[in-house]
């Protein structure tokens, strides 16, 4: 659609860069406490890349050592891709009302946290949960308690949890503990290549922008 025009220039990636972007997205997703922005264009390109690699393999000579190396590489990429998508589905199931709320309330032009398929999955999951609760749990409760507020009853992602990260681009003046009153806000510089253990909330924008990599 129209929204792809803006992002199209960054996606002229070499296959190696593409796989690296997938791996970065996968590690960030694995270690971030919340569902991150969806990366449909990376997934689309990786799937095309895999098809391309499969096609090349079919043309290769049998018994060629390169074939088994390529086959292993294809398996590895498939593993990362399916692990990444599964990791996202687990988070959607865990936090579905909050994820849907965030998706509904995002501003025009803000990146989506759900792919269209994930959005459909989340809505269906929510509908099924509501039906299940009505039929099973709520039947036996007094009528005034039967209205179930899923946003209240499903835990939110814990953005205060700590994450390990590696700095890819130097950052200056990152506020580390903005909440505490008694302690004056203290800021640190994140040097390129350095590793830190930091509260996720304070570095979430840097994870989103790709300046740091969760590890």
UniProtKB/TrEMBL annotation:
Residues 65-136 form the GINS subunit domain. Residues 157-215 form the DNA replication complex GINS protein SLD5 C-terminal domain. GO terms for cellular component: GINS complex. Pfam families: Sld5, SLD5_C. PANTHER family: DNA REPLICATION COMPLEX GINS PROTEIN SLD5 (PTHR21206:SF0), SLD5 PROTEIN (PTHR21206). Belongs to the GINS4/SLD5 family. This is DNA replication complex GINS protein SLD5. It comes from Ciccaba nigrolineata. The gene is Gins4.
